[in-house]
């Protein structure tokens, strides 16, 4: 008979004593449980002791987390958090170097536990850490332990970052700016500053003033990838916390220092694989840079602005006045106005008498004008050829340059998510972005010539304008999806993907869809589904057995600690535990925590998850909600919370967990995989029927012939 839900069988260890095997009554007060354990070992003063996990983060057992104890758990009887806090508070003030170092090392480890952290902070322990840092006597290993302990204590949000003294902050900054200092100290100092920057405007200004961009760029160029990552994290934190004007100035300075080219050559194309966190920072840097164009994108043209009118007229002058023998200024006002209107019409403006009206729509606003001017100045020959070539065609066949440029700018803004806030988890950056200084404008120059090329291939007229731009959007998105590493490679690939290729791709997709809609094929699909669903189930469970590296998301930091979760090969137990940075696939034996699959009750996703409800007071991030899921196990109070690294991982894990719970897989990835497998299987089954139309109804079975007689009549023989 299984034990009651409020009883767990566990082992208790203590140094120098024989372990105890007990049945822990979850309804019994923890103080009474500790007294019974101490009495069994004849230990006085039970209030000085506490229970602690022996593996993982070695968390103290409290009334609030005791329900997480599982059958078979091994706990340790150790000094209570208040006793440890008192002991370490004294130890870090010791004059003995070894005692002080050991105390700080233990403090850094125990500070991960919220109960101990609160006890230590209540004793004004942070003040002692401040003094150790501010005095600056200790360096190397001792300083690293001090900074690590400070980081862990601040993680619990008991103390505001704004309470830090200027002297303490400047000391941390000095470790970042020092050329000769231990790498671990610099990494921790950069992490502290990164956490500090988003909390208040005053701290941002102080850090921005003390830590120069040149210093951060120096750290970016080191070979130590961890130090490089922390420097990039602080740079991104500063950019995100800056005002629009400050952000623009910072990005201009980074452009002067050729940071993009360095990232493209030494980080994206380095021999070391690019980590998830660095990929996210590169995505954010790309997003920030592209969003600098948001203001121009949302600003309509002002017809009374002299500067904007000059930019507009420069388009006409570049295209036409260079080849004109008589300057426009020599004509009368009426003649000049008529000539300008004619030339603006040739440029492709809809409202040729007042072309500024075409640029009143925002988005794309003035960004479209900027792109056209950039194209005309960077490649005047290509620009003139585009305009003059189309002005010599018949009216209905000319490709309107201005109208196409305005619509293309809007398409590029949508594809590149200009003006949208940065995702907290996305890692999708374009490597070729870091290979160009004016990426958006350079991409426009390539794509506007693609518009003209596609227009000619389609033999389009003015009525086909939307169709042409739709094809161009498809050409751009299909090419970007393969993530070309340079703009030249993008240009080559997008030009190869011409209109005829797009038609072939569309036709293939359409034929595939039509083929799969025939009634007999639909019946065959239904027969094949159970077998293929079973195959998908096996793949999902296999993926869970391989495991995944997850990140914990805290309230202040985008990503905190790493932890790993995987399913046992017999599909009966989920193993999980914290891991260090750099560990990709830890062995299952190294993951201390376990959840029996039989104890799993429910799978929660999105807004239903407890860890997303906890953050509901702040600005809820859509991406986090789309990647969040939780397992409810044992009793409903216990949850294991996940934030999947990607949507792909989210789909595989939620499908796999649903399989373990005996429920249907519901993710969009399951439907995609099923459609792909069904398509492959159907194509194999229907190979012999190629070019043969499949009727909706089976052919009628003919009547048997009149002479079909297999029965011998014995009566005639008689």
Automatic annotation (TrEMBL):
Keyword Lyase set for record: no
Protein name, entry field: ELMO3 protein
ELMO domain sequence ranges: 307-480
Functional note: Involved in cytoskeletal rearrangements required for phagocytosis of apoptotic cells and cell motility. Acts in association with DOCK1 and CRK. Was initially proposed to be required in complex with DOCK1 to activate Rac Rho small GTPases. May enhance the guanine nucleotide exchange factor (GEF) activity of DOCK1.
Pfam families: ELMO_ARM, ELMO_CED12, PH_12
UniProt keywords, alphabetically: Apoptosis, Phagocytosis, SH3-binding
Taxonomic classification: Eukaryota, Metazoa, Chordata, Craniata, Vertebrata
GO biological process: actin filament organization; apoptotic process; cell motility; phagocytosis
GO MF annotations, alphabetized: SH3 domain binding
Transmembrane segments: none
């Amino acid at each position: 008979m299984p034990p009651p839900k409020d009883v767990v069988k566990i082992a208790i260890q203590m140094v120098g004593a024989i372990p105890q095997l007990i049945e822990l009554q979850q309804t019994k007060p923890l103080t009474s449980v500790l007294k019974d354990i101490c009495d069994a070992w004849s230990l006085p003063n039970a209030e000085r002791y506490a229970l602690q996990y022996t593996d993982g983060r070695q968390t103290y057992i409290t009334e609030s987390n005791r329900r997480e104890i599982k059958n078979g758990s091994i706990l340790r009887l150790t000094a209570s958090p208040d006793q440890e806090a008192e002991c370490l508070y004294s130890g870090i003030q010791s004059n003995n170097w070894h005692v002080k170092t050991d105390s700080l090392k233990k403090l850094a480890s125990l500070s991960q536990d919220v109960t101990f952290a609160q006890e230590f902070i209540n004793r004004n322990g942070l003040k002692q850490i401040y003094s150790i840092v501010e005095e600056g006597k200790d360096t190397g290993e001792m300083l690293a332990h001090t900074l690590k302990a400070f980081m862990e204590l601040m993680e619990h949000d008991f103390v505001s970052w704004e309470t830090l003294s200027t002297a303490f902050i400047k000391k941390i900054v000095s470790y970042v700016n020092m050329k000769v200092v231990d790498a671990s100290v610099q990494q921790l100092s950069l992490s502290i500053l990164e956490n500090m920057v988003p909390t208040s405007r005053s701290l941002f200004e102080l850090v921005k003033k003390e830590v120069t961009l040149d210093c951060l760029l120096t750290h970016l160029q080191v070979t130590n990838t961890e130090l490089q990552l922390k420097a990039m994290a602080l740079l991104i934190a500063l950019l995100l916390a800056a005002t629009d004007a400050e952000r623009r100035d910072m990005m201009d300075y980074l452009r002067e220092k050729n940071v993009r080219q360095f990232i493209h050559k030494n980080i994206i194309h380095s021999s070391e694989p690019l980590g998830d966190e660095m990929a996210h920072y590169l995505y954010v840097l790309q997003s920030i840079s592209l969003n600098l164009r948001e203001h121009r994108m949302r600003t309509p043209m002002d017809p009374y602005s002299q500067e904007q009118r000059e930019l507009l007229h420069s388009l006409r002058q570049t295209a036409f006045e260079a080849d004109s023998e008589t300057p426009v200024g020599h004509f009368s006002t009426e003649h000049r106005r008529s000539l300008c209107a004619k030339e603006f019409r040739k440029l492709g403006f809809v409202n040729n008498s007042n072309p500024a009206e075409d640029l009143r729509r925002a988005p794309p606003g003035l960004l479209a004008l900027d792109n056209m001017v950039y194209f005309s100045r960077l490649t005047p020959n290509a620009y003139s050829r585009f305009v003059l070539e189309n002005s010599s065609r018949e009216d209905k066949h000319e490709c309107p340059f201005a109208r196409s440029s305005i619509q293309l700018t809007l398409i590029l803004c949508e594809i590149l998510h200009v003006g949208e806030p940065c995702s907290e988890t996305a890692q999708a950056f374009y490597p070729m972005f870091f290979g160009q200084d004016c990426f958006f404008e350079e991409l426009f120059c390539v794509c506007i010539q693609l518009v003209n090329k596609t227009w000619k291939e389609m033999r389009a007229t003015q009525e086909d304008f939307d169709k042409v731009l739709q094809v161009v959007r498809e050409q751009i998105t299909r090419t970007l999806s393969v993530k070309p590493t340079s703009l030249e490679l993008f240009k080559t690939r997008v030009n190869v993907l011409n209109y005829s290729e797009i038609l072939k791709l569309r036709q293939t997709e359409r034929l595939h869809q039509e083929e799969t809609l025939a009634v007999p094929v639909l019946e065959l699909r239904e027969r094949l589904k159970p077998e293929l669903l079973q195959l998908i189930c096996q793949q999902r469970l296999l993926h869970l057995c391989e495991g995944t590296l997850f990140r914990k998301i805290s309230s202040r930091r985008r990503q905190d600690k790493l932890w790993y979760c995987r399913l046992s090969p017999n599909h009966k137990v989920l193993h999980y535990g914290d891991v260090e940075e750099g560990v990709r696939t830890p062995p299952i034996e190294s993951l201390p925590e376990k959840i029996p699959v039989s104890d799993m009750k429910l799978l929660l996703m999105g807004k239903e998850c407890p860890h997303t409800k906890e953050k509901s007071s702040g600005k809820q991030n859509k991406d986090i909600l789309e990647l969040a899921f939780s397992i409810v196990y044992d009793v409903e109070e216990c949850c294991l919370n996940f934030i999947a690294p990607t949507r792909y991982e989210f789909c595989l894990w939620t499908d796999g967990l649903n399989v373990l719970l005996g429920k249907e897989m519901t993710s969009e990835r399951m439907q995609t995989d099923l459609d792909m497998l069904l398509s492959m299987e159907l194509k194999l089954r229907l190979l012999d029927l190629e070019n043969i139309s499949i009727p909706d109804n089976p052919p009628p079975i003919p009547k048997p012939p009149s002479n079909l007689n297999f029965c011998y009549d014995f009566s005639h023989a008689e």
